[in-house]
Amino acid sequence: MAGLELLYNCVSSSITSPRDAVVCFVHWEIVKNGFKCLGTGDEPQDGEKSSELLPAAWNANNELYTLRYRSAEDKSSLLLKAITVDSTLIFNLMDPATDKVTDLTVNVSDYVDEANLQTFESVFKNTEDLAKKLKSSLLPAMKREGSERTEKKARAPYADVQSNPDQDPLRLPHRAPLTAHPPNWPDPLEPFAAGGADLDPFGRRPGGMIVDPLRSGFPRSGFDPSAGIPGVLPPGSVPPGARFDPFGPVGRHRPGPDPDHLPPQGYDDMFM
């Protein structure tokens, strides 16, 4: 409660009721959060100066307390009103810029000893409980400044990502710029561009529509079509290195088909 004792001793001579003591306590909690008091009443007056102290005639009306505050940093304002209802004080704290209002009802006798109004050491009781209620119910109206700063900090990384998308850790980078490695497409103006690899007997062009088993990447059988196929192709029929798709099985001495593979229709002799 640093600072509250000095404040209370400054106004102790003007405190005439337990309600005054509670208002003094609430005032100090607001000041602790970076606000200073401008004066009393709903409207500003000439010659007002912000101060951590309570203004003159702050408790002139024990039925309705009205105090105005302003932040020292962003100039945001607050309007505090405390209304007396029997043995309680109903506090309302409003942010005029957003019309946000918070309220708290305080049972005065729970926190102030009426027999010791002039003695700071014994006037307050259960101060931790009162401070907790103020922070949870009344003072959230003052969090606009802090929430705006937090929102700006939260938006800043997103703005940086938009200005420089390469810094986004969730973005998958390009393998390479599209202009760095243009696609290996044939020239559409070339007459033999489409299927050009199939028309080149020397295999100098990549790609093509015909599958070449001799250039598929699998181990070759050692068969050379240029050497000819006995009984099928004479030697020299296929140019050396030309693309050649065999039209029959490589080798002349392969076993014939098993007749059981394709039995005659309606034949059920398993020993055929």
Commentary on this structure:
Residues 183-249 form the PI31 proteasome regulator C-terminal domain. There is one protein chain. The chain has 272 residues and is an alpha+beta fold. The chain has a domain at 4-45 and 55-144: Protein Transport Mog1p, Chain A (3-Layer(aba) Sandwich). 23% of the residues lie in helices and 14% in strands. The chain has a five-stranded antiparallel beta sheet with strand order 1-2-3-4-5, with helices on one face. The longest helix has 20 residues, at 144-163. The chain starts with a helix and ends in a 73-residue tail after the last helix. 14% of the residues are buried.
Helix content: 10-25%
Please count the beta strands (DSSP E, at least 2 residues each): 5
Mean pLDDT: 75
Multimer state = single chain
Estimate what percentage of residues fall within beta strands: 5-15%
CATH topology of the domain at 4-45 and 55-144: Protein Transport Mog1p, Chain A
Euclidean distance between termini CA atoms = 108 Å
CATH architecture of the domain at 4-45 and 55-144: 3-Layer(aba) Sandwich
Query: How many helical stretches?
Result: 6
CA-atom Rg in angstroms: 47 Å
InterPro entries: PI31-like, PI31_Prot_C, PI31_Prot_N
Family: Belongs to the proteasome inhibitor PI31 family.
Region (Disordered): 141-183, 221-272
Domain PI31 proteasome regulator N-terminal: 12-142
